[in-house]
Write a structure and sequence with these properties.
Layout: E1 3-4, E2 7-14, H1 19-28, H2 33-36, E3 40-43, E4 55-62, H3 65-86, E5 92-96, E6 99-102, H4 108-125
Antiparallel strand pairs: 1-2, 2-4, 2-5, 3-4, 5-6
Helix pairs in contact: 3-4
Length: 132
């Protein structure tokens, strides 16, 4: 996961079985849709003769920390909705630059840590941070 021309490459990992649901959630969120639409799900092997496009890993590229914030808030909201409807909260982590952060609560801490990681990646690569 690197920063390419100001863009940030992210890897989102989920509990087994919720990746497809999270992906659909992100596609329906107006703030995250544009980034999720370009995402590449990493397919998992369906078990026991099942057919489907399930995945637990999603790779995507976002242009800046504002997009990162929107994405993480959408993930946090998804987790809260699942908890309210099922009583369980799926684990979702976001990785960037070799750092993997678990999204918890409202996602504020994950945004802070990932923003710091993105800033470190850009500084070490000589790329100026983008804010647009």
């Amino acid at each position: 996961m690197t920063t390419v021309g100001g863009d940030m490459e992210l890897t989102i990992r989920t509990d087994h079985g919720v990746g497809t649901d999270l992906y659909r959630w992100l596609l329906e969120d107006p703030e995250a849709r544009v980034y999720a639409a370009e995402a590449t799900p990493a397919a998992t092997d369906p078990g026991g003769g099942e057919m489907g496009i399930g995945f637990d890993v999603l790779n995507l590229v976002i242009p800046n920390v504002i997009a990162l914030s929107s994405l993480v808030v959408s993930i946090a909201t998804y987790r809260q909705q699942v908890r309210q409807s099922t009583g369980t909260t799926p684990s979702v982590s976001v990785g960037h630059g070799g750092v993997v952060i678990v999204v918890e609560g409202d996602g504020t801490e994950a945004v802070r840590q990932l923003t710091r990681t993105a800033g470190s990646s850009e500084a070490s690569s000589g790329t100026a941070p983008t804010s647009s």
